[in-house]
Amino acid sequence: MPTAHTAKPYTLLAIDDDPQSLVILSKVLTAEYEVLLAKSSARGLELARNSQPDLIILDITMPEMDGFQVLGELRKHAVTASIPVIFLTSRTSVEDERLGFLLGASDYITKPISPPVVLARVATHLGYRDKLLHPCQPDGDSTAGSDMREGFISALALQLRHNPRLRLDALLDSFAALLGHVLSEPDQGALRSAACLALIGLGQPHDSLPQALGAGRLLIEEIIGHTNAEDPVLNLAWDLSHADVMLDGGASSSLPEHAPLSTRLFALVLAYHLALLQPAANVALRHDRALGAMLSHPAASNLPSDTESLCSTLLGIARAHLDR
What we know:
Number of domains: 2
Strand order of the largest sheet: 2-1-3-4-5
CATH class of the largest domain: Mainly Alpha
Largest sheet: 5 strands, parallel
Number of helices: 14
CATH superfamily of the largest domain: Hypothetical protein af1432
Helix content: 40-55%
CATH topology of the largest domain: Hypothetical protein af1432
Distance between the termini: 54 Å
Structural class: alpha/beta
Order of helices and strands: EHEHEHEHEHHHHHHHHHH
Strand content: 5-15%
CATH architecture of the largest domain: Orthogonal Bundle
């Protein structure tokens, strides 16, 4: 008697004109996922629209339509616009990667295909899809700008996952706590998105924070050039990306007075977080030292005079996120 087919939780679509690559992907993925295969761009787009898979693995170099064009077509239609796309490519060009992320790609996998890498990246993005770094705001139809933002935020989550100098969730939670003590009704979703975008340049462990925020400014400017210049999240991200000017105590004596409040608070939480990651006997000692560095910063003049509640909140966040 034949064994009944057990439904698998996710359906993946692989689009590649190379049959060998499709065979490898099928063998790697079918144990855990339902897998659809397409040998051409046209067939891939048809399957994507009809089946609406949970994730697409897309080759870049294909005849008729390359992967960038296919991704553009996917993003034009509501039924496929939000499907995560991982590029499969033999290219290593930084410009190609940046273009892919601008169009809304979630990640890159390079050829030759490594089964453990494929499985890890797929699992990561399916998990990211189910648990976003920030709550989505149902503000109408998806736009090119929001697609680009989501692509960058997704890429950043991967870049920072194993970065020893920055724990993204802890930093964002600390930022939210600081804003909550200073602003009456901050838009936490927008602020978290903007903070992610401001930090997008911190992709390599050896990059300094000022280098990262400088790179973030360039990327945000490029996104704004491709979408709505009045986008509030992108403009807030632009403000936050200037926090590096304040990390040295305020390079300009007039800056603390004229810089946006969000920029000053972001600089404070960066100073706190970077100090928090320095070694010490336990988290409480690290927190006390980091808090002292933050409260002595020139930008701390905006904090409430009674900081007891804030200190307790930040310590709780530190203990929740730090494991050393």
